[in-house]
Amino acid sequence: MGCSVSVPAFAFAFLTVNSVLALYRVRGDAAAVAFVVSAYVLLVLLLLSLRRYEAAPPARRSAGRVVVWLLAAALNSLFAWHVASVMPPEFSAAVWTLTALATGAGFYVLFLLQ
Predict the structure, then answer these.
(1) For the whole model, what pTM was predicted?
(2) Which residues contact 87 (CB under 8 A, 6 or more apart)?
(3) Alpha carbon 84 to chain centroid, angstroms
């Protein structure tokens, strides 16, 4: 029982410390600060939503699926935007294509695959 509580707590602490360090490194760049904060908030919300989704009875999971998929799609899009902004247009198109495929695959798994 102690292991199941300490591993998520350690992972959350690790994520928080790394986010604070990233914020310290980019403290003069407003866009980078917004990126780090947005990624942190989306990831924490996604992890909390996944936890609630897994704990919910099967009859009440449909709304949880929507929330999980939207948060995952937002996080994928955020990272794609950040990566694609520093790449040549051809590679940027590939990044966005892979992001769309990953988002579509998540939709398929969560909503269409029964």
Answers:
(1) 0.85
(2) 95
(3) 17
**Residue (of 22, 61, 60) closest to 40 by Cα position:** 22
Query: Which are the contacts of 84, defined by CB distance < 8 A and separation ≥ 6?
Result: 91, 92, 95, 96
Provide the token pair at 78.
Answer: 């955020």
pLDDT in tens, 50-101: 999 999 898 888 888 999 999 999 999 999 999 999 999 999 999 999 999 9
